[in-house]
Amino acid sequence: MIESWIIGTLSRTLAYGTPLLLGTLGEIYSERSGVLNLGIEGMMSIGAVSAFATAFLTGNPWLGMLVAGLAGGFASLLHGLVSITLRANQVVSGLALTMLGLGLSGLFGKGFEGKPLQSTIPNISIPILQDIPYLGEILFNNQNPVIYFAIVLTPILSFILYHTSIGITIRSVGENPAAADSTGINVWLVRYLCVLTGGVLSGLAGGYLSIVYRPAWTQGMTAGMGWLIIALTIFSSWSPVRGLLGAFFFGALIHLSFRLQPWVSPGLLKMMPYGSAIIALVILSLGKLNRKAGAPNALQQPYIRGEK
Amino acid sequence: MFKNKYVLTTSMVFIILSLILVGFSSTVVAQDKKLKAGFIYVGPVGDYGYTKSHDVGREYVEEMFPWLETFIAENVQAPDVESTIDQFVNNRDADVIFTTSFSHMQGTISAAEDHPDTLFFHCSGVQRRKNVGTYFSGLYQLYYLNGLMAGALTESDKLGYVAAIPNSEVKRHINSFAIGVKEVNPDATVHVRWLNTWFDPPAAKEATQSLLEIGADGFAFTEDSPTVLQTAQENGAFSFSHYNPMYRFAKEGTLSGQLTNRGVIYADILYKVYYGIYTSNNLKNVDYWWLLKEGAVELGAKRGMKINPDYIDELKSKTVEVPYLGKISVYDLVMKRLKQMKSDRVTFDPFIGPIKDREGVLRLKDGEWATHDELWTMEWAYENIKGPWPGEPKE
Amino acid sequence: MRDKLPFEIKKRQNPSGLGVITVSFFALLGAFLVASIVFWAYGVNPIQAYIVLFSGAFGGIYEISETVRRAIPLMLAGVGLVVAFRAKFWNIGAEGQLLLGATAATWVALFSPFPDFLLIPGMFFFGFLGGALWGLVPAILKSKLGINDVITTLMMNYIAINLILFLVQGPWKGKHQWGFPYTDKFPESAQLGTIAGTNVHWITLIVGIISAVLIYFFINKTTPGFEIRVLGSSPSAGRFAGMSYVKTSLLVMAISGGLAGLAGVGEVAGIHHMLRNPSELSLGYGYTAIIVAWLARENPIAVIMTSLFFGAILAGGDTIKISLGLPFQITDVFSGLILFFLIGSEILMGYKIRWSPNND
Q: Would the CB atoms of C327 and B74 count as touching at under 8 Å?
């Protein structure tokens, strides 16, 4: 009984948490370089529709994912142009991107509504590994390759961020762009690349939703996940590994909010994931585990040469 | 548009009848002006759910009547209903306006007072006035038929119901489904999970998964996307089309379904408006509550496929004892009930007493049929329903 | 890439009023030009589209009233957000605070022992309290425990939405609503009057304008306002001067949340006359108000203008959708474009641009 609960919940956690994880990883990179991007919902939506359209027309879901990444990246460049080059307010630019992204994907997606996708990325089971007790059933039995991609990506992005010169460059741009500039770092280029990374990963998150998670395109299918990603980015203290924990923690809560319905009022359960997030932050801060929780110093600050 | 001949015939019968009526009253004035009808939707047309089903109906009448011009406004929420109606009347010269969500009621009534010469029809509404009529097509009979099939086919004796918002309509549908299940399989239970929203595919997916985990192997649902159906098929379970034919999303998993033919109602209303039977003065008592008999709804995985052929043999092989009908296969029972509810003299309804709710309260006495108002204000949960039930009456 | 642009950008100390207007005008023009492509792609003459847009927002008394109706909640929540943003408190939670205001007002209207003549004042009072309470939670968490304000205010939105759903489906479910998850209708004495022939609940409008003016004086002319500004621009300097960060944070969020709460009171008492599904109650007003506050450049008086501007975009956008039969997403695309152009051009206001091809 308990086993089925744990295995079932954790296994679903991976499926629901993956788009959250992809988006969070991207937003972490974007914000680490000092650019807040509130346009995730819009970029995910654009990713979802372009992935679906590509997979539908070509029959190749992998190509769909690729196009989703490209489309999300392309959309994020608009935010880059406005907030990095034109130094506009990042909050408004991100909100504008959300509006534009939701609107454009809706217009573009009109022809793909109510169409079934014949070719999705199938779930796989990994021989031998799937026979490991518990872990095998949760991780290696009937899961999707995209989930593995996201999980494997996490330590890689974490390693790059903390242990390579690329990571140092990114963090220094996010903490003190003027100092970074004085050491010869191209602040604008770094920020553009990080925003682009965020866009590509958000696009992939959208593609996962429309090709893998629920193969169909509908206006509004991202259902507010983009906002959860913003919250998760902060929740993770801008650390990819904590991002993974946060995304899966949230995935588990969302799934449990249905699983627990026979015992707890659905209305209260729907509040649970959000309330738990706040409670978790309180516990973390009381336990002084949150010491490195500070946002990148230059977050939301456009960089202007010759000024501090 | 509709392949179902029955629908066409019914609507043609109505039209011919009305023509005769009109002919007798001989008040028809040759009109060369087009009748303009505006449709106000609560969601996007592309939801492939509730709003789509209305738009299919609109396309149906637009194709049927050469004298009709239609236009739509999507995604109109309660606060903007009145201003949308104003613009339909002022800028687009709408003669008739359909508001298609219960949440549009306040705006519809108040705008109707401002535009006394315009005719309004409010779907799922309960408030009428001289220029506001109401209409609705009920799916509950179909949920009952789906319940019969689901009860026969479940191996785990556990069925799932992914439900949207706990209102009387959804509760009626769940009860109806559960009554069908119980009739063929007294041991089976119906497990309900609530989404608290009409449209949220990720939530619908997780709700379905959570029901799969407790062993449910068949699903009915109320949510505006094929998510539950797709998820059921992925896991070897069955489910049903809801509002629109969803068979193409899950060819193995779609057992049957509840389909709407809203065009039949729209045709009847618009026809009567065009020929002056309905005016902005006589709608006070015009209420359409159209069901199987009128052809406003139909049973099917898709149009023309009442039951997915993959399941027919199994349904034919399962037999049950039913009062008055004796030993009968579930397939025949479904067809028999369908016929009873479709015929001109309806001889069956899912809500015939004795019906007790799960608190043990007798809701319908032996042989008593539920009235329109009882159906429309239903709050209780049927005996074999498990899971939460917001607003459940205790007595 | 490294600033090798053929022109030189110099910072201007204070952008002139005329400069702001000129640049904004050309930015709007640019947005209109790009949006024209979208209209044209849908077979609509862009010029006709803009005529429809403007007449939908300003074409007559009724049209103007529709612009104003949409501006009311944006104005109140926007003024509140200005206070928060001034103190560098990133309140993304105006939506939840608005909903809590609506909830508190509903309690007064339906379940409180208030006599009839006190219902409306009571609704505004408790609505403010409800919003303030919802704003105080993140304020306490931030000032006492250092927990990020964006995440808590955002989470509080979702909690508010689900709290209302819980109430209207359970304990507060109306007896006369045919099983739909709404509360019962408010008594007449708890409904706000509207200007005849319109849906403008004028009391809330006046409350909004007065709030904007009061907040302007509060921020610029009073000691607590001064402390907010100081702590916003430099918390360490403020602390050094003996100002209490905790006290100021609480004050800021009580005001910010309270004003959003008043917006919620206006919506339930002036438009809906009941509490209902949050997605029908507030069409994302709390989020749009963030944009309204930013466009006003954190000036409360300017919020009156920017909220009306956004009200006009919403009203005009709806008219385009309805009158020209365009898909509803057009409104989103159009607003998104306008925002991009408006903020993208901001750089031109704060800076002088001089052509200098040899710049390196």
A: yes
